[in-house]
Design brief:
CATH topology of the largest domain: Rossmann fold
Binding site for S-adenosyl-L-methionine: 12, 14, 39, 60, 81, 104
Largest sheet: 7 strands, mixed
CATH superfamily of the largest domain: Vaccinia Virus protein VP39
Order of helices and strands: EHEHEHEHEHEHHEEEHHH
EC number: 2.1.1.182
Bound molecules: S-adenosylmethionine
Number of strands: 9
Subcellular location: Cytoplasm
Domain Ribosomal RNA adenine methylase transferase N-terminal: 19-189
CATH architecture of the largest domain: 3-Layer(aba) Sandwich
Shape: elongated
Helix content: 25-40%
Family: Belongs to the class I-like SAM-binding methyltransferase superfamily. rRNA adenine N(6)-methyltransferase family. RsmA subfamily.
Radius of gyration: 20 Å
Strand content: 15-25%
Length: 254
């Protein structure tokens, strides 16, 4: 029976065989990899991945799709909202090593998924995600560019990231109204030690009024934290490089 795409689950199914092949080639699955796919849908990516890996764990929220996926014995189907999945516990169940996470993500919750995975980054080898191209532009943006934002600062302290493939709307059924791309995210081997919650709060405050100088936003927050060090608050949030945000968070933690 034909599955009708459900808008509320952000369903846009890949249909272009060449694009699917190109994505799998970027993921480069190796025998022995322990991989988890988020939102397998009708298995467009799942099939070639499982062909190479022999088995795959998939996380799917749509019950009808989960029922179909369970018919394939090589798939370990977790029927759940990905935002509720404890990836650290799942990784522990699957392997003594690290997991690779992939997926053509539902765009309506892509940022929450990225932040959720940040909490479990210690068990992750790498991540390859299809996202709205505009979101990837913000993830990888350099300071003092229009795309440099909270998302850039929240992710770049922890991952090396690159846009590896452009994917046009026609590659999907139904086509989304935006351009898409694949991002590769590799956790840094030696990340700085920060209190993620405090860092997140600081970055949110800094970018709350991104066009204004930091004195009234971040400056006030730093005063509340009892910070007495040096920091140039005459700049705007988008002018401060990630390593300075990291150092500031570390100084505030002390
Ligand atoms: C953009 S589609 C991708 C489908 C398929 N991987 C493909 O490329 O054709 C997103 C998929 O994520 C699933 N999904 C949506 N929200 C989800 C959630 N909160 N947790 C897990 N899966 C979800 C949808 O049902 C759908 O299968």
């Amino acid at each position: 029976m034909k599955h009708i795409a459900r808008k509320r689950f952000g369903q846009h199914f890949l249909k272009d065989a060449l694009v699917i092949e190109a994505i799998v080639s970027e993921i480069a699955p190796q025998a022995g990899d322990v991989m988890i796919e988020i939102g397998p849908g009708l298995a467009a990516l799942t099939r070639p991945l499982v062909e190479r890996l022999g088995q795959l764990t998939v996380i799917e929220l749509d019950r009808d799709l989960a029922v179909r996926l369970r018919e394939q014995p090589q798939l370990d189907v977790v029927e759940s909202d990905v935002l509720k999945v404890d990836f650290s516990a799942l990784a522990e169940r699957l392997t003594p090593g690290k997991i690779r996470v992939v997926g053509n993500l539902p765009y309506n919750i892509s940022t929450p998924i990225l932040f959720h995975l940040l909490d479990h980054v210690a068990v992750v080898q790498d991540q390859h995600f299809m996202l709205q191209k505009e979101v990837i532009d913000r993830m990888v943006a350099a300071p003092s560019t229009g795309d440099y934002s909270r998302l850039s600062v929240m992710l770049q302290w922890r991952y090396a990231m690159e846009n590896v493939l452009f994917v046009p709307p026609e590659s999907f059924d139904p086509p989304p109204r935006v351009d898409s791309a694949i991002v590769r995210m590799v956790p840094l081997a030696e990340p700085p030690a920060i209190d993620l919650q405090r860092y997140g709060q600081m970055v949110q405050v800094a970018f709350s009024q991104r066009r204004k100088i930091l004195r009234n936003t971040l400056g006030r927050w730093l005063d509340e934290q009892g910070f007495t060090g040096e920091f140039d608050l005459q700049r705007r949030a988008e002018e401060v490089p990630v390593h300075e945000y990291v150092s500031l968070a570390q100084a505030v933690q002390k």
